[in-house]
């Protein structure tokens, strides 16, 4: 099974994907790290302070694995059996991204994307609601256990088709977004 762990930068994809892969004894494919190691970076987007990768090369490489945990901000781009989108409340995400030393502009963009559910919407558009799952990663133990349950059961009742999704588009979060 190819399990994709997606989400805005800092939501905890690598932290969780590594552990899931380790526990299941399947490869952890960190697309961003692989892009650097294997030379898939085609250009630098200075405006977004990010690297643009050759998606066809990444897809071809990932497609050679039948079982893997795929860890990518662009989860929907890779063939997979399920997408689990990690979510993180804006204030917590702010702390995590500031600790990484990201610029205020980059933190702002990422928090806006989180508030607007960009990763979740992209996953649903590509995979459909039945194959898209959402897990809030604030407490790591709880998040890990939620992810494990989704993978173990693959129960559609846990998918966003049946579960209410998070709601970060609040006045408080928008005020926070404009405070830095
Ligand atoms: N539940 C959590 N509680 C506290 N800290 C966490 C939690 N989950 C992740 N972190 C921390 O947040 C930071 C970001 O996590 P991580 O690197 O796993 O995110 P990511 O989604 O892989 O980011 P990127 O897209 O940039 O690769 C790390 O320092 C990690 O240790
Ligand atoms: Mg990561």
Summed up:
The chain is of the alpha/beta class and 180 residues long.
Report mean pLDDT, rounded to a whole number.
Answer: 95
Physical arrangement of strands within the biggest beta sheet: 2-5-1-6-7
What is the count of distinct domains?
1
Instruction: Give the CA-based shape.
Output: globular
Q: List the uncertain runs.
A: none
How large a portion of the residues is in β-strands, by DSSP E? 15-25%
Helix segment count?
A: 8
CATH architecture: 3-Layer(aba) Sandwich
CATH topology: Rossmann fold
Kindly provide the radius of gyration, computed on alpha-carbon positions and rounded to a whole number of angstroms.
16 Å
Distance between the termini: 41 Å
Q: Biggest sheet: strands, sense, closure? A: 5 strands, parallel
CATH class: Alpha Beta
Helix content: 40-55%
Give structural notes:
With 180 residues, the protein is an alpha/beta fold. It has a single domain (2-177), classed as Rossmann fold, CATH 3.40.50.300. The chain has eight helices and seven strands; from the N terminus they run βαβαββαββαααβαα. It has helices at residues 13-24, 31-38, 55-63, 90-99, 104-115, 118-127, 140-153, 171-177; strands at 2-6, 28-30, 41-45, 50-53, 68-71, 82-87, 132-136. A five-stranded parallel sheet has the order 2-5-1-6-7, sandwiched between helices. It has a two-stranded antiparallel sheet with strand order 3-4. A hairpin with a 4-residue loop joins strand 3 (41-45) and strand 4 (50-53). Helix 4 (90-99) runs antiparallel to helix 5. It is globular and about 45 Å long. 36% of the residues are buried. The model has no long low-confidence stretch (mean pLDDT 95). Residues 7, 9-15, 32, 73, 96, 137-140, 143 line the site of adenosine-5'-triphosphate.
């Amino acid at each position: 099974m190819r399990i994709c762990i997606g989400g805005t930068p800092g939501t905890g994809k690598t932290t969780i994907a590594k552990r899931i892969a380790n526990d299941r004894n399947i490869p952890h494919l960190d697309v961003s790290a692989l892009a650097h190691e294997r030379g898939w970076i085609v250009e630098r987007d200075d405006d977004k302070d990010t690297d643009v990768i050759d998606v066809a090369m990444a897809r071809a490489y990932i497609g050679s694995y039948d079982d893997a945990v795929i860890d990518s901000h662009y989860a929907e781009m890779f063939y997979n059996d399920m997408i689990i989108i990690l979510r993180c409340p804006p204030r917590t995400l702010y702390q995590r991204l500031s600790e990484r030393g990201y610029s205020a502009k980059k933190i702002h963009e990422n928090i806006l994307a989180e508030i607007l559910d960009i990763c979740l919407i992209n996953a649903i558009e590509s995979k459909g609601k039945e194959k898209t799952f959402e897990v809030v990663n604030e407490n790591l133990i709880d998040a890990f256990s939620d992810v494990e349950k989704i993978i173990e059961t693959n129960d559609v009742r846990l998918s966003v088709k049946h579960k209410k999704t998070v709601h970060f588009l609040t006045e408080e979060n928008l005020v926070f977004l404009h405070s830095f």
